[in-house]
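Handout, section 3.2

Students often ask what a structure token actually looks like in practice. Rather than define it abstractly, here is a full record for Hemolymph juvenile hormone binding protein. The first block is the sequence as you would receive it.
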Amino acid sequence: MLQSGGYFAFLAVIAFIGGSYAAFPTSIKVCSRNDPDLSRCITESVNDLRPRLASGKISDEFRIPPLEPLALSTVNMDRGAEFKATFSELLVSGPSKFKIDNLKVNIEKLIFDFNIFLPKLSFKGKYDLKIKLLLLNIAGVGDLTGIIENNHARVKLLCEKYTKDGKEYMRVKKLLVRIQIESGRFDMKDLFRGDPVLSQAGNQFINENSRLFLDELTPGLERSLSETFKATSNEIMQQATFDEIFPA
């Protein structure tokens, strides 16, 4: 489930990158900042790029972290003593099936705002949790697998220009992600110290109350994704000047 969010934030970066490979492979469609329909141009560029995103091989010379599987950093949940959890070593399958729409671009203020939809994500990783869900205390450490479906996100990139070596560049100042996950199913091994009966009961309880569990996870996931992919996008964008990214 965590992975879904991971995917979303990465796509936030991708949607912007769709217009920002100008200094790199010639196979990437470049969008002029004076294009009267810049949103459409960037969206088309992202769609053209999608087949290369799964492997991360944009060209022989230029690579980015692959989307399949998508590796996520640690996600923490912490809402006091009754709700603590850490999810790590996360790998997500399915991110390359993303769709973006309703892209809004303010090139003067460097604001990029768009929706992302992903039908299905499967994931695996590690978990360490101690939570109280309704009246049940659930604890365990072990392997995690699961599926989340019908994932939506609203992403907003707030960028700014800066000068380096006499040239003008662009970077992400803030990356905001708001996630909505319709449904999810989880399998956590070794709940209740591996007691098979209690472990099965704990997983069943979590899945029967997955809406509550997902709602608790979302804020920490959004924070983790925003931080991770802000850094990723800035690493990529520093390779080209603003004029190379969005030529006149």
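Discussion prompt for tutorial groups: The domain at 70-245 is CATH 3.15.10.30 (Bactericidal permeability-increasing protein; domain 1). How would you have guessed this from the sequence alone?
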